[in-house]
Amino acid sequence: MADAPPAAPLLLASRSPQRRAILEQLGIPFDVVEPHYEERAPELADAADVVCEHARGKARSVATGAGDRPVLGVDTEVVLQGQIFGKPADATDAEQMLEQLSGKTHVVMSGLCLLTPGWEVVDCEGTRVTFRDLTPRDLGTYVATREWEGRAGAYAIQGRGAALIKRIEGDYLNVVGLPGSLLVRLLADRFAGTYGFG
After folding, report:
1. Catalytic site positions
2. How many Å separate Cα 167 from the centre of its chain?
3. Among residues 140, 34, 29, 28, which one has the least CA distance to residue 91?
4. Does residue 35 fall inside a structural domain?
5. pLDDT tops 90 at residue 9
6. Residue-wise pLDDT tens digits, 123-142
7. Is residue 74 part of a domain?
8. DSSP readout, 120-176?
9. What's the rounded mean pLDDT across residues 138-158?
10. Which end of the chain is more exposed for a tag (fewer CB within 10 A), N or C?
11. Distance between CA atoms of 78 and 51, rounded to whole angstroms?
């Protein structure tokens, strides 16, 4: 029996090194194309709608040159009591975000869009993350690492930000930046066997 032809690499519409690392970890072949899409996340809005809209916008922005290859767009935001925490503007902004998250449970919400010329699927995934109570020293020490730069909610769970966390409920990879379980489920459903799932 002849071997199946290799799966066409997904086109990842993202600038995120974390998303690339997750796809590599899952063994999913991919190429990266920088999306031409400007995110606008109001502080108070339905987070699921926002991340799905952004994921769709990123995927569609690169779909024209994709041919028949599946395109993947992802967006992730941190949500506390209905307020969306985007990427901090500076160290002061980062410290204020972390202070608000201290001792509380927030939701990391990701939207995922998988599209081909024939169809488009958009879905979202939420993971509950509880911070421990942070002291002023905790805040100052973490902000000084500059790990918060470019991170929704001002922390990176896969780095030193892990020390801020008391517990998580749900998909860990979602907090890193890509809802792995959701993606695997979609690939298993839409491309059974092609990428090693389903």
Report:
1. 75
2. 19
3. 140
4. yes
5. yes
6. 999 999 999 999 999 999 99
7. yes
8. EEEEEEEEEEEEPPPPHHHHHHHHHHTTTTT-GGG--TTTGGGGGEEEEES-HHHHH
9. 97
10. N
11. 10
Q: Quick one: which of 66, 27, 87 has its CA closest to 58?
A: 66
| Segments forming the whole domain that contains residue 174 | 10-190
Mean pLDDT, all residues of the chain:
94
Q: Which pLDDT score, from 0 to 100, does residue 65 have?
A: 83
Q: Are strands 165-169 and 120-131 parallel, antiparallel or unpaired?
A: antiparallel
Q: How many domains are contained in the chain?
A: 1
Residues 12-21: tens digit of each pLDDT: 999 999 999 9
> What global pTM score does this model have?
0.92
Residues 6+ apart with CB under 8 A from 14: 20, 32, 34, 35, 58, 72, 73, 74
Mean pLDDT of 108-115: 97
Mind listing the pLDDT tens digit for each residue in 78-92? Answer: 999 999 998 999 999
| Residue type at position 27 | G
Taking phi over 0 as left and psi of -120 to 50 as alpha, with beta for the rest, 76 belongs to beta
Residues 69 and 118 sit within 8 Å (Cβ to Cβ):
no
In a domain, 25, yes or no: yes
Q: Which CATH number covers residue 81?
A: 3.90.950.10
Question: What is the rounded CA–CA span in Å between residue 142 and residue 148?
Answer: 8
In a domain, 4, yes or no: no
**Amino acid identity at 98:** L
Of the candidates 185, 181, 176, the one whose C-alpha atom is nearest the C-alpha of residue 157 is 176
